[in-house]
Amino acid sequence: MTVKPEKILLIGFGNPARADDGLGPALAEAIEAKNISGVTVDADYQLTIEDSAQVAEHNIVIFADASINGAEPFSFETIEAKEYDSFSSHSVEPAQVLALAENLFNSKAAGYILGIRGYEFDDFGSLISEKAKANLEKAVDFVEKLLKTKNFNKPQKTIACL
Amino acid sequence: MSKRVIIEPVTRVEGHGRVSLLLDENNKITQARFHVVEFRGFERFIQGRPYWEMPVIVQRLCGICPVSHHLAAAKAMDQIVGVDKLTPTAEKMRRLMHYGQMFQSHALHFFHLCSPDLLFGFDADPKIRNIIGVAAKYPELAVQGVMMRKYGQEIIKATAGKKIHGTGAIPGGINKNLSITERDVFLKDIKQMFDWSRSALNIAKDYTVKNLEKLKPFASFDSNHLSLVRSDGAMDLYHGNLRAITADGKKIFDQVDYTNYLDYISEEVKSWSYMKFPFIKSLGPQNGWYRVGPLARINTCDFIDTPEAEAARKEFMAVTNGKPNNITMAYHWARMIEILHSIEKINELLNDPDLQGTDLVVKGERRNEGVGLLEAPRGTLFHHYKINDNDQIVMANLIVSTTNNNEPFNRAIQKVVADHIDGVPEITEGLLNHIEVAIRAYDPCLSCATHAMGKMPLKVTLFDYQGNEIASKTKE
Prior knowledge:
CATH architecture of the domain at 86-215 and 339-361 in chain B: Orthogonal Bundle
Order of helices and strands of chain A: EHEHEEHEH
Number of helices of chain A: 4
Strand content of chain A: 15-25%
Helix content of chain B: 40-55%
Shape of chain A: globular
Oligomer: heterodimer
CATH class of chain A: Alpha Beta
CATH superfamily of the domain at 86-215 and 339-361 in chain B: Cytochrome-c3 Hydrogenase, chain B
Number of domains of chain A: 1
Low-confidence stretches of chain A: 156-162
């Protein structure tokens, strides 16, 4: 699939008060500071249904989340819209957001998920662990290059383990 | 011999919960427990932090209703900085933020969590009894839900500054007003929001009236009700005094200054749940438990001060001849009366020039204790703090809305099981559906947990009385 990346949305999600669960918002903050043309950056505790309306306004959406047991330092892959039979507004999955965007707003946005490997999820506190910070830095570099080159055709179904 | 049936987590509620049912040797229900398996520990976590951080830091309690915690903490901090009355601009900006929160939260719950149950029936196939099913059969409703939620979220962003960790409310006031440009964006869509709110109210009302005989016993029981009311008895979701009534409407207490809540409300701890059990002191833990939230608020108030919601309230109360409504499923109807009230209030506020005022903060003489209460979407929310001479928090007590409804959850589940499932020893889809529908009526929020990739299955496990697993069912 070739997508012309005219409008790109990056959503970092997770709870910054639960240590490494804040990796998604931390990545969003770092990317937003770089002010890359054609890129909208958003952050929230979790994905919610109205994200589907925002997704529908873009050609490409990258969901950035912490990963409990994924590849180190991060994984990056395409996702397809998927309908689930148990919805929770507490934690709508990226594939569900894409499905809502398709079903409700006829969205054709291509979806990608960036899973940044974290290690500490049970502690209270806004500090990301040192190991996860190192993964975050690599993920930020990767996403920055991707957003600047806008080359979204290569990494489909690939895991990026730098 | 007893068997213990455990269901975890409950889907389509906010956060994770677990239900265990204790059956006797004849598979009759003897006990229902709604467990909260997360340990929030926030009251301890914030000790030692400076008081002025509270309105921002407490938003981390919950990703669904952070605004309620933001405002309740700000109200408590107003007292810490010695402020009992805000400027008109500060109070109205906070109210706008609060009604925006109420609007988006109720819209989310109604359209995307509860409407599948109402539109397709409790026992419909879960494959269609969800928002995608609604989107397929009633696409206009699903879009309305998304757009109403978005409208409320945009109000929050405009008043609180940002979506995560908003900073709008500060001790003694607010840090921004609403520009004319911002106001006009919201006014442009307000008619549409009114129309959709009226339509949602009609869906909830028509469903309840049409199915009244079936709904009357479903998960229902008599209970006390508690909420804030204004000094003239009107519903007020942002500020007021405490009122509690019995199941048949007698006042237990009224116009209680909420800073004295500890004289009237106590909390019982039970070994099997991290969530405490609040009760009205004068009635004791056995009889003093109560319900909060939309149903309780409609029951406790004397009137609503916006015309369309007041007309809807009168219709609602007529169903029970003016007496309090104790039908659990009537929560949905009550919630939609509040969504209409919220948009009426938002309209009122957007047309008030005080929102463009520049007098934002009041200063007073510092105190060592503050209590802030408001009516959050799910019910009365209590924030209570004490600080030391170094401005650090030394004590925090939070009673969140869902905690207030703790005993009612257990009652609702036990009633459902006793009425509909009793005698069936296995975990059926029907059992799951009915329990979920009962719990969802309360729109419980069990506080945010880590939700990173790889979690959130629905696991159903059957244990015998000795804790041995004898059956398990997982729903991804």
